[in-house]
TrEMBL record:
Residues 148-194 form the Phosphoinositide phospholipase C beta 1-4-like EF-hand domain. This is Phospholipase C beta 2. It comes from Cebus imitator. The lineage of its organism: Eukaryota, Metazoa, Chordata, Craniata, Vertebrata. Residues 12-141 form the PLC-beta PH domain.
Length: 199
C-alpha cells in the first residue's frame, strides 16, 4: 500500500469477540436475567447472543449507536434484578462488570441491551472494541456486495441441527417479498412449501 494510493481495509474483529464471552442479559421491564454467550461474527457484521436454549438474537453492527460500561451503563431498577446481582451489598462490583449496548434506527428511538459479565472489566473491553467496529469507516459506507455477504453470514449462523438453512429463515430475512422468495427457491429447485423445512 502506497501513501499516494491508500486502501481502506475492512475492520478486523478481535479473536476474543468471535470466540464469545459469557454474560447475563437482563431486562428491567420483564425482570428477567438470562445467561447468554455474546459474540461478534468474524466479519464484524453482527453482535449476537445465544441463550441456553440455543435461540439466537442478532443486532446489526450498523444499528449500534453507543456502548456503555461502568457507571455509564444502565443499572437495574427492579428490586428482583437488584437482588440477583447483589447490588445492595457494599462490596458489590456490578459497575466493573456492566455493559449496555444502545441501538436504534436513529438517536431518538433507542433500545438498551443490558449485559453483566462474570468477570471484572470484561464489559469495558467489549464496549471499546465493539464501538471501534461501529465507528470504522467501512461499517457505515459499505459497498453493495457487503449487504449480500451480510445476508449470507446471518443465514449460515442459523443452521439447523442437520447443518442446513431452514426455509423459514429465508422468509424471515425477506418478510415483504414472500412471493419472490418462493419463486427464487423454486428456480433453485429448493423446498418452499413448508416454512419449517430446511434447504
Amino acid at each position: 500500500m502506497s501513501l499516494l494510493n491508500p486502501v481502506l481495509l475492512p475492520p478486523k474483529v478481535k479473536a476474543y469477540l468471535s470466540q464469545g464471552e459469557r454474560f447475563i442479559k437482563w431486562d428491567d421491564e420483564t425482570t428477567v436475567a438470562s445467561p447468554v454467550i455474546l459474540r461478534v461474527d468474524p466479519k464484524g457484521y453482527y453482535l449476537y447472543w445465544t441463550y441456553q436454549s440455543k435461540e439466537m438474537e442478532f443486532l446489526d453492527i450498523t444499528s449500534i449507536r453507543d456502548t456503555r460500561f461502568g457507571k455509564f451503563a444502565k443499572m437495574p431498577k427492579s428490586q428482583k434484578l437488584r437482588d440477583v446481582f447483589n447490588m445492595d451489598f457494599p462490596d458489590n462490583n456490578f459497575l466493573l462488570k456492566a455493559l449496555t449496548v444502545v441501538s436504534g434506527p436513529d438517536m431518538v428511538d433507542l433500545t438498551f441491551h443490558n449485559f453483566v459479565s462474570y468477570k471484572e472489566n470484561v464489559g469495558k473491553v467489549w464496549a471499546e472494541d465493539v464501538l471501534a467496529l461501529v465507528k470504522h469507516p467501512l461499517t457505515a459506507n459499505a459497498p453493495r456486495s457487503t449487504f449480500l455477504d451480510k445476508i449470507l453470514v446471518k443465514l449460515k449462523m442459523q443452521l439447523s441441527s442437520e447443518g442446513k438453512i431452514p426455509v423459514k429463515n429465508f422468509f424471515q430475512m425477506f418478510p415483504a417479498d414472500r412471493k419472490r422468495v418462493e419463486a427464487a427457491l423454486s428456480a433453485c429447485h429448493l423446498p418452499k412449501g413448508k416454512p419449517g423445512g430446511a434447504r
